Queue: 2 jobs
Job 1
Amino acid sequence: MELIAIPAFEDNYIWMLQHDGRAVVVDPGDAAPVIHILRSRSLVLDSILVTHHHADHVGGVPELLDLYHPHVHGPALENLAFAHQPYFGGETLSVLGQATQVMSVPGHTAGHLAYMLTPQDQTPILFCGDTLFSGGCGRLFEGTPAQMMDSLDQLAALDGRTRVCCAHEYTLGNLRFALAVEPGNTQLQSHYQHCQQQRQQGLSTLPSSIALERQINPFLRTRVPEVIHAAHLHQPHVTQPADVLGVLREWKNRFK
Ligand SMILES: [Zn+2]
């Protein structure tokens, strides 16, 4: 099974998996770059996975449906303008013959899903939409800090080798913020340098891994004393992980 990152818009990635000429795409906000890859590689679009309802994640679905008639899987708790198999989280579905776990990860949106596959003889793959980014997390448009904390805790508990396929190339900005939170985190410092080099060469910083995110992502580190201390500079006395996350998220919203 081959994992392909298709750049779209300014900084989105539409993730594709292909095996034996059949492909699945995740969050095709734009049909054109997907059609281009399908045609240039002679692939058939078998299915579409949708994590949440935002336009930059679903905008290309109707055109792809018209052209290829794929199976579409998406959140039950969100309004989507096309027919799809609805999921709440906790289900298992088959994608290109691979068992795929559906996870409920609300916070960015109310019904946000993540999809987790473990292809044979390969490390697991997580499609997490706008819930988890490398070095950061999604904005809380429809959920509470407590919901996002629960969602991120679920993701952080996955196998450390899991390849984390985020929907945006936000890594450098996120790592600059992470360094403001934890200036003494040496793994974070060296990962920031690595990602700067990647971007200078026009390369993606993704996929990340769960093990790496546990070391560098402040939103997965809300129980670490240095992170709690940094949150106290903005709001004294917060102790609960969800409250620390809420303070970090607000701080990040204003961070330049
Ligand atoms: Zn979104």
Job 2
Amino acid sequence: MSLLLLKNIGQLIQVENQGRPYKRGSEMADFPILRNCWLTIKNGRIQEIGAENSAPPTSTNSIDVQGATLMPTYVDSHSHLVYASNRQDEFAMRLAGLSYEEIAARGGGIINSAKKLRAYSEEALFADAQKRLAELIQMGTGAIEIKSGYGLDMESELKILRVARRLAKESKVEIKTTFLGAHALPPEFKNDKEGYLSLLINDMLPAIAAENLADYIDVFCEENYFSLEESLRIISAGKEYGLEAKVHVNQFNSLGAVPAMVNRGALSLDHLEVMTEADIESICESNTIACLLPGCSHFLEIPYAPAKELIAKNAIIALATDFNPGSSPNGNMNSVLSLACVKMKISAAEAFTASTLNGASAMGLSAELGSIEVGKLASLMILKQGYTLESIPYHFGHNLIETVILKGEIQ
Ligand SMILES: [Zn+2]
């Protein structure tokens, strides 16, 4: 593949040369920028980064970005992108004043999503998810983690994970998959939780491993869903198949999952809206990534995770969309960045590090993505003229991205 030159770069943001897997605490605001420079791409990877004010090499294949800002693409480390159909009807009920209990009684919630998904063909599920992914790419997403959890039976959970694997094959986005069979208890096991846990551990997990469909294991550890003890059983079972843990914890209640999962070496703990002092201490002293989901807090009108305190106490923070049809029907990382700045009161630089390098770390991808570094994948976005990083949280709701390049190819 020929060389591609990007020249007249006004600002090149998040340039690194130390191969850091993540930045923690105050390092997150340490934000290297090169001005008036150039960059070359070969075979989908960053080949060379020109020094400030240096002359670019001659190349027939070049893009003059005319002083625009260039940044690495977003890494969305928590999503439920593969789902069967939206839940706008439930949203309308909520706006009409119905409570969550009333909406659930009318068939709402995760179980509603599972019912719809089971009836969907793999082909239709793929077509819908592919459309969603195409939209996300134009909003700067270059990598995304996708969870199962809307199937809740063997066939449907496998169906979701196969769709996610196929999306990875057919796009330039880096995709990692997570088995979240323990998202909710399916109706057919309403009075037999042990039966479902046995199906999940003894049947689903081996089948998923046999087809190599998952990279990670997840559980919704929450009151009325899965207890801490059940969650630990599930992640231990996943570990036997080489699946590291990325776990939904502390969304509504602190069940002690943070220290317990940190002690078991979880890669990331996600949500963290409700945190005790002990929870904060344990994650801040560990290498487990705190993956925060402000879109979910906004949409459900629940508290935001204490990002500022976590950063002050030296945690590794990632930001992700939690894109799903129930609690966060938004896959736009630009708006996540904006919410993090406005609602969690962190800086644009901290939010961007959390949305790129630290997100990549939460997907085991920081050697490939998350910063602009020689040898990494050339997944970059060029902003529209006159805008820079700080413009993104400021112009909330706008798309300031002119061009997205994934693995060296314009999208
Ligand atoms: Zn989630």
